[in-house]
């Protein structure tokens, strides 16, 4: 079963351009957000965000998923 918070948190991470900024906005530890997005990716079987220690990039699949999440929230 999907946790709708994970979808909302994914949208916030993308909107804020990373886990740290989203964590501050949501008053959640960035490690929790990162872990929950990783679990979401595992459940979906796709990579939504390309992570490195210094870069954050939304994948093509992640962009499509982001648009669906945003439209569902409206």
Automatic annotation (TrEMBL):
<dbReference type="InterPro" id="IPR036388">
    <property type="entry name" value="WH-like_DNA-bd_sf"/>
</dbReference>
<keyword id="KW-0238">DNA-binding</keyword>
<keyword id="KW-0805">Transcription regulation</keyword>
<keyword id="KW-0804">Transcription</keyword>
<dbReference type="InterPro" id="IPR000847">
    <property type="entry name" value="LysR_HTH_N"/>
</dbReference>
<dbReference type="Pfam" id="PF00126">
    <property type="entry name" value="HTH_1"/>
</dbReference>
<comment type="similarity">
    <text>Belongs to the LysR transcriptional regulatory family.</text>
</comment>
<protein>
    <submittedName>
        <fullName>Transcriptional regulator</fullName>
    </submittedName>
</protein>
<dbReference type="GO" id="GO:0003700">
    <property type="term" value="F:DNA-binding transcription factor activity"/>
</dbReference>
<dbReference type="InterPro" id="IPR058163">
    <property type="entry name" value="LysR-type_TF_proteobact-type"/>
</dbReference>
<dbReference type="GO" id="GO:0006351">
    <property type="term" value="P:DNA-templated transcription"/>
</dbReference>
<dbReference type="InterPro" id="IPR036390">
    <property type="entry name" value="WH_DNA-bd_sf"/>
</dbReference>
<feature type="domain" description="HTH lysR-type">
    <location>
        <begin position="1"/>
        <end position="59"/>
    </location>
</feature>
<dbReference type="GO" id="GO:0043565">
    <property type="term" value="F:sequence-specific DNA binding"/>
</dbReference>
